[in-house]
Specification:
Length: 362
C-alpha cells in the first residue's frame, strides 16, 4: 500500500515537471532560434573578412625599399601641393612688383617696345634643307630638332632677323617634333614647307653653304637665299651637300673661316652655329667678330694673325736652340782639342817611363 502511494506521487511530480519544462521551451524557442541565427551570421562575416584579407605570399609581392621611397615622395608631393601653389602666387606677385618698379624707374617706361622698334628685318633668306631625313638615325634627328629650335629662338631675338625657311619638312623630323614639341605649329616668322627649296626659289638666287666648296664668301648678298644642309651625320657622309649642290647646278660657297680663324678641330660647324654667325655678321658686318662671338671655346679658335705670330716665334726659338746647340758642340770640340795635347804628353811620359823600367837590368 505504501509503495503504491509513493509511485503515484512520483508520477504526478514527474508529469508536472515535464509540463513545466515543455512550457519553458516553447516560450524560449523563438528567442533561441534568433540568437543562433545572429551568431551564425557573425561567424560567416568573420570568415569572409579573413578570406578577403591578403595573405603574404599569395599573389602579392613585398614592396622594395625603392618603391617605398617613391610612395613616400609621392605622399610628400601631394601634401605640399597647397604650399607650392602659394609659392607660385608669391613669385608671380614679386615679378609683377619688380616689373612695375622697373617701369617706374625708366624715364619713358617702354624700353621693350623701343627695342622692338629698332629691329630691322633682313631680306636675306636662310634655308635649312631637311631632305636628308633618311640618312639619319633617331638620335641624330633629335639633335637636328634641337639645333632648329636654337635657330628659331636666335632669329626671334636678333636685331636683323632673316627670312627663315625650313624645307623638305616631314618624315622622322616631323614625327619627332609632333611628339616632343607640339608648339612648333604656332611658330612665327618662319616658313615651314614640305616641298624642296628648288620648287619655289629660283636657282640663280640659291647659294649652298658647304665647307667642301672651293669658293669662299667675302660678304653676304641679302638678295640671295643661302642654304644650310640639315644633316647631323658625324662626318659619315662627307662631301654630300657639296655633291648635291653641284648635281643640281646650284652655286656653292663656304664661310671665310680659314681667313680669320685657326682651329684645333675640323672646320665643320653645327647648323645653329652657321645660322648664328650669319645673324651676327648682319649686325656687325665683321666676320672675325662674328666667328669669335659664336664659336664655342672647345673649338680652340684663335685669330689667324696670332697663330702666324705664334708659329714664327716657334720657328725663331727653334732656330736659336739650333744655334745654341751648334755653339755648344763647337765649344766641346775646342775643349777636346785643348785637352788632347796634354793627354798626348802624359801618354808619352808614361811610355818613356815604361821603356826605362824595361831597360833597367835585373
Amino acid at each position: 500500500m505504501g509503495v503504491g502511494i509513493r509511485s503515484l506521487v512520483f508520477e504526478e511530480f514527474a508529469f508536472q515537471y515535464f509540463q513545466r519544462h515543455q512550457i519553458m521551451t516553447s516560450e524560449m524557442l523563438p528567442a533561441f532560434i534568433e540568437s543562433s541565427n545572429v551568431e551564425r551570421k557573425q561567424s560567416l562575416s568573420e570568415d569572409q573578412e579573413k578570406s578577403q584579407k591578403p595573405r603574404l605570399g599569395e599573389g602579392f609581392e613585398p614592396i622594395s625599399k625603392r618603391q617605398m621611397k617613391k610612395l613616400i615622395k609621392q605622399k610628400q608631393w601631394e601634401e605640399q601641393r597647397e604650399l607650392r601653389k602659394q609659392k607660385r602666387k608669391e613669385k608671380r606677385k614679386r615679378k609683377q612688383l619688380e616689373r612695375q618698379c622697373q617701369l617706374e624707374s625708366n624715364s619713358d617706361g617702354n624700353d621693350r617696345k623701343r627695342i622692338r622698334r629698332d629691329v630691322v628685318h633682313s631680306t636675306l633668306r636662310l634655308i635649312i634643307d631637311c631632305s636628308f631625313d633618311s640618312l639619319m638615325v633617331l638620335k641624330d634627328i633629335k639633335k637636328l630638332h634641337k639645333q632648329i629650335q636654337r635657330c628659331y629662338a636666335e632669329n626671334r631675338r636678333a636685331l636683323h632677323p632673316v627670312q627663315f625657311y625650313l624645307t623638305s619638312h616631314g618624315g622622322q623630323l616631323k614625327k619627332n617634333m609632333d611628339e616632343n614639341d607640339k608648339g612648333w605649329v604656332n611658330w612665327k616668322d618662319i616658313y615651314i614647307k614640305p616641298e624642296h627649296y628648288s620648287e619655289f626659289i629660283k636657282k640663280e638666287d640659291l647659294i649652298y653653304l658647304t665647307s667642301d666648296s672651293p669658293n669662299v664668301l667675302k660678304e653676304l648678298d641679302e638678295s640671295k637665299a643661302y642654304v644650310i644642309g640639315g644633316l647631323v651625320d658625324h662626318n659619315h657622309h662627307k662631301g654630300l651637300t657639296y655633291k648635291q649642290a653641284s648635281d643640281h647646278g646650284i652655286d656653292h660657297a663656304q664661310l671665310p673661316l680659314g681667313n680669320f680663324v685657326k682651329m684645333n678641330s675640323r672646320k665643320v660647324l653645327a647648323i645653329n652655329h652657321v645660322f648664328e654667325i650669319i645673324l651676327e655678321y648682319l649686325e656687325t658686318r665683321d666676320w672675325q667678330e662674328a666667328f669669335f662671338t659664336i664659336l664655342p671655346q672647345r673649338k680652340g679658335a684663335v685669330p689667324t694673325d696670332k697663330a702666324c705670330e705664334g708659329s714664327s716665334h716657334d720657328k725663331k726659338s727653334a732656330r736659336v736652340e739650333d744655334g745654341l746647340d751648334s755653339d755648344s758642340s763647337e765649344e766641346e770640340n775646342n775643349r777636346n782639342e785643348l785637352e788632347s795635347p796634354h793627354e798626348e804628353e802624359k801618354q808619352d811620359k808614361e811610355n818613356s817611363n815604361e821603356s826605362t823600367v824595361n831597360s833597367i837590368p835585373h
